[in-house]
Amino acid sequence: MSEVVIVANAEVAGHYASDCIIDLVKAKPDSVLGLATGSTPQPVYRELSRRQHDVDFSRMRAFALDEYIGLPTDHPESYRAVLNREVVQPLGLNPGSVKVPNGRASDSSHAGADYEREIHAAGGIDLQILGIGTDGHIGFNEPSSSFASLTRVKTLTPQTRADNARFFDSADDVPMHCVTQGIGTILRARHLILLAFGSAKAEALAAAVEGPLTASMPASAIQMHPHVTVFVDEEAAASLANADYYRWVFDNRPEWQTF
Ligand code: F6R
């Protein structure tokens, strides 16, 4: 089962997730992170930037979870640009150490296989940061995605395009297609940290953590992973049937236990 930690707010989650990343990088300086984009991971990236002097990030490597297809590379909402802004520049990383799937439309047929090769060559992902879509997607693995899927091109649902319209001038500007790590790719990472904040995520989060395993709820695949930590605020936790038990577990954590 996933360890579900209900926190007071996103900043507390950002603090805990940063602890995990900093401990990992201290133990393994060339760790490989998996980086989500969107609003959810921002408190983590802000906290890492605030604590960048606690650890040497210079050898850390990272892989983005996904990228839109067809945006110019210098578009401010390409995930390459977002990660440059939120992670690479604040942490002073070498931009080449953070890989992003190739979102050029002309290369999309082999972008997935190329990306899988790069992840494999890096030794796999040690810690993957995940958000969750209101329709239950992780990465951009929309409902019906195979649990065995690897990095490939996907078509965004109208719901995801509407959710992401806030980052663009208009809903029509949200790309239709993306290259995303598959669910199988995500499940190969050695530790998954899934974050969810706000009431809009409550139904999907409960279905992901407590519902049946089904491709109709892609995030439910995390139940098959041996090491998952879910940091969730009260609003996103509102539909969890076992919330009291998760609080009980957290309040009674053995001192030696880490996330
Ligand atoms: C982003 C990603 C998506 C988002 C999800 C939630 O790289 O892969 O799965 O995590 O769409 O988005 P936000 O955090 O903006 O609510």
CATH topology: Rossmann fold
* Alpha carbon gap, first and last residue: 13 Å
Overall pLDDT metric: 97
Bound molecules: fructose -6-phosphate
Write the CATH architecture name. 3-Layer(aba) Sandwich
Backbone CA Rg? 17 Å
Tally of DSSP helical segments: 8
Q: Would you identify the regions where 5 or more consecutive residues have pLDDT less than 50? A: none
- How do the strands line up in the largest sheet? 1-10-9-6-2-3-5
Q: At the first level of CATH, what is the class?
A: Alpha Beta
Tertiary shape: globular
What can you tell me about this protein's structure?
- The protein has a single domain (3-135, 149-251), classed as Rossmann fold.
- Helix content is 33%, strand content 16%.
- The protein contains eight helices and ten strands.
- The mean pLDDT is 97.
- The chain binds fructose -6-phosphate.
- The site of fructose -6-phosphate (F6R) has 14 residues, from loops.
Write the SSE topology.
Layout: E1 3-7, H1 10-27, E2 32-35, H2 42-50, E3 61-64, E4 66-68, H3 79-91, E5 98-99, H4 108-121, E6 127-130, E7 152-155, H5 158-164, E8 177-180, H6 183-188, E9 191-196, H7 202-210, E10 228-233, H8 243-251
Parallel strand pairs: 1-10, 2-3, 2-6, 3-5, 6-9, 9-10
Antiparallel strand pairs: 4-8, 7-8
The structure holds fructose -6-phosphate (F6R).
In brief:
The protein is an alpha/beta fold and 259 residues long. 33% of the residues lie in helices and 16% in strands. Helix 1 (10-27) crosses helix 2 (42-50) and helix 2 (42-50) packs parallel to helix 3.
